[in-house]
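Standup notes, protein team

Yesterday: finished cleaning the Halobacterium bonnevillei set.
Today: ABC transporter substrate-binding protein structure.
Blockers: none.

Input for ABC transporter substrate-binding protein:
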Amino acid sequence: MPQQSTNRRTFLKSGTAAAAVGLTGVTGCLGGGGGGVSDLSLAFTVPVENLGSLFDIEDLRNELTNVGEEYELSVTRNESTPDSLNSMAAGEVDMALLTTVSYGSAVSEEAVPGNISMISTDFWDAHPDWYGFTLYAHPDTGIEAPADLEGAKIGVNAQGTGTHAVIAKALRSADIDPENGAEIVELPFPSITSALNDGRIDVAIYPALFAVGARAEGFTPVVSSQDLWDSEYPFAYTVASNDSLDNKSDAIELFGEDLAELVEYCYDNRSEVVTKAAEHFELPEPVVDGFFLNNNDYYRQDITIDMDRLQSTIDELVDLGFLEESFDVSEYATNDYVPSIN
């Protein structure tokens, strides 16, 4: 990954007024109107796979220019992106990793006081040369193709998520009713392999980190995102509450600079990052090494937002029934906080 300067950029002055009811959990700003030193908070879902999770590793933070000096950052983990969204709505976090479904639902339903804005892209799904979300079945089930999913118990971390949307699209591809044609079982990602082995579920959707284990177990790949979408599409993002963007804009811009530095550092020092991440998150190092920043990982084109592709992805969620109507993403997404790393 080529090194580039991450000089400060002109930040967006949000046109959205702060909500009348303040978010008590995100009022750590020591200076008003975006000035001064701020305390920021970030929630993620899957360690290592979600780039923001790496901010939780002190040794990696120490390689970055701003965090710990110009702003403070606390990092927490949730079981699903809707959980992170709920934390943001409750005022407990400033920023969170969301998928297209949770982002679109949050915007449409105004789930967060003052609403939210996307500030960076984490990764893309369904790229032909990189990992795509995959449904794996236990071999004993005999499930090998989407048509075999009729009546199956399918594990997912949470309904109403981007992973749930992949399952729905897989069922529709086989003319199976996503609402009634299969049973959706909610399980934390770390529990899905044991649930398959115990026969509690027949199939599960695997993100990149846990797919290393699915391949090691010899589970049967049933269908992947590449089989369902014509081309890659942005899947996961960092979003911020608009109240936080209003009150902590300087700090969030500095976070964006650090995020770009962090991604470049990971590409340049992959082996070191793999070791540190495995130790910090208590994961087997071969598991982390088996997917991180190689072709078993997701496509990570850039951390900025492709507005046209994001718009078409939101439009498709309407067709899938995850959103009632589309919206103009340019009103709820901005590239003014995060520099490009291309």
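Follow-up from PR in the comments: Residues 1-36 have pLDDT under 50 and may be disordered.
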